[in-house]
Design brief:
The chain is mainly α. It has 10 helices and 2 strands. Helix 4 runs parallel beside helix 9, helix 4 packs antiparallel against helix 10 and helix 6 crosses helix 8. This is FadR/GntR family transcriptional regulator.
């Protein structure tokens, strides 16, 4: 195994332990020696992977103590260089609450300002979601595209810039929500949103978007 592949193997192992919540923020990770033995790679490869994750802010080295999973504030997730593997439950709730405040207005503006072409794109996204209930990646990517189309159709340049800035975060957010809740509620809610958009009913669209995100928030809290 070459050094690049060995370093990638270490990186993915650390990523996996974070994703499975085996290593939570504040956890001291396995020593370089133990990791090298466990994965049958050199210490150099282990060190390369660790240094990369330190540079990304996922890990932090404490002199004389070892290497730890970093503690992160929700605002850190806006750094597109930071892997979304660090998104924890509190961060997930913060994102949904943020989306409730922003996307309610987005939905109202879309209903009132969107073109027929933008509505057609929205319907395409919905059909991708509806037709791919057993394909999680296709589903959450179509879900993300659905909401980004609403941002674009709102015709507000600040909203569009903010949503684009948060692209990586929102894609991962959609993945986590899908993994936790499945596709059923999302399909039903998005169908109702499209009906409001077709009627150009801004108030109803805003209400339905808020109900969609409030339901998502409630179901996630029930999973805790």
């Amino acid at each position: 195994m070459d050094s690049e592949n060995a370093s990638s193997k270490v990186y993915k192992m650390i990523e996996g332990k974070i994703l499975t919540r085996e290593w939570l923020p504040g956890t001291k990770i396995t020593s370089e020696n133990n990791m090298a033995t466990e994965l049958n790679v050199s210490r150099v490869s282990v060190r390369e992977a660790i240094e990369k994750l330190v540079g990304l802010g996922v890990l932090v080295k404490k002199r004389g103590e070892g290497t730890y999973i970093n503690e992160l504030a929700p605002s850190n997730y806006l750094n597109n260089l930071l892997p979304m593997i660090m998104l924890d439950t509190d961060g997930l709730i913060d994102i949904i609450e943020f989306r409730m405040m922003v996307e309610e207005g987005m939905a109202r503006q879309f209903a009132e300002k969107a073109t027929d072409e933008e509505l057609a794109v929205l319907k395409q996204c919905f059909h991708k979601m509806k037709d791919q209930p057993n394909n999680p990646k296709a589903f959450y990517e179509a879900d993300f595209e659905f909401h980004m189309t609403i941002a674009q159709g709102s015709k507000n340049p600040l909203i569009m810039k903010v949503m684009k800035l948060m692209t990586e975060l929102l894609i991962h957010h959609q993945k986590v929500v899908h993994d936790m809740l499945g596709p059923e509620g999302g399909v039903r809610d998005h169908q109702r949103l499209i009906e409001a958009f077709e009627e150009k009913d801004g108030d109803m669209a805003a209400l339905l978007m808020r109900k969609h995100l409030a339901r998502t928030l409630q179901e996630i809290r029930e999973k805790l």
